[in-house]
Amino acid sequence: MFHKAWNGQAWLPSATGWDNMGGAFDETGVLNPGAASGGGHADIFGVGRNDLALYHKGWDGQRWSPSPTGWDGLGGVCGSTPCVASRGILLDAFVVGNADGVLYHKAWNGQAWLPSVTGYDNLGGACVGDPCVSAWDNTRLDIFVVGSADAALYHKAWNGVGWLPSTSGWDRLGGQFMLRPSPCVASWGPSRLDVFGVGLDQAVYHKAWDGTQWLPSMTDWEYLGGQCSSYPCVVSWGPGRLDIFVVGAQDGALYHKAWDGTQWLPSQSGWDRLGGVFVSNWVPCAVSSAPNQLDVFGVGAQGQALYHKAWDGQQWLPSITGWDNLGGVCKSAPCAVQRGTGLLDVFVLG
Question: CA angle, corner 81, sides to 54 and 157, nearest 5?
Fold first, then answer.
């Protein structure tokens, strides 16, 4: 796995250079890295190339543990990209089992992995693709998967005491979605969730939890248009704000739309074209390091270098359709985390 960081002024180790973090991970472009950050820390996860086990390393603010190129083995036989949520010092990691399509979970409580270093909790389900998770506070987790039998979206939640509707049960949220890689979810405040998926017609669909109910209904979805070759990536930089990014099916360019608290921009079904030509089925990655600030990453279809652009609150940099080349030869979609104001870490498989 390879890594680079933005320290607020420059890319490290250089504009096009990368640090080698070691490991031997699945490089099919399906099992991508997973990462989470909190309190200045960063935690990175990958699926082993040879054994499909989950591996982890962490940045504590000064050094990588267990070493700059070493990884801790966390067991399992994974059939999905790891999906991770950070709740302060707590970490929750989710993977789909390679053989059975069941969702599995393990947690770091600040001192140890639970249920054990290599053990997992069985959360049931018959899943395809990758799970996604959101944490709106330190006691809440919401997990979403696509069902293998009907391609509908399914949901379960941790409320701080137990799993809802049950440890192995799931709520069906309807829809019919592309089976790979996953839906995406964002929370812009307590008790608020916004979930997005790509339908069989390649358009983006959306539903929201407003604290008391699913909108537009338990099983219905809002149509947001588009013709996508990738699943969406969504990020929220403030209450009532959402920014969504997808790769276009026709031209491989990146497309964007936003919710400003009252309406979709540029329109309900319209999208802004941000240029580039990206690997068609690899999900772009976007993070926010401060209010009204966005950083977006994608892997170029020609040469598979990593490309980046930023929203500074007023304009796209280097331009609305231009991108900065960050080098590398990537074998996976990027994974990026915000570790503090103006600080970014980006990870790819080489």
Answer: 95
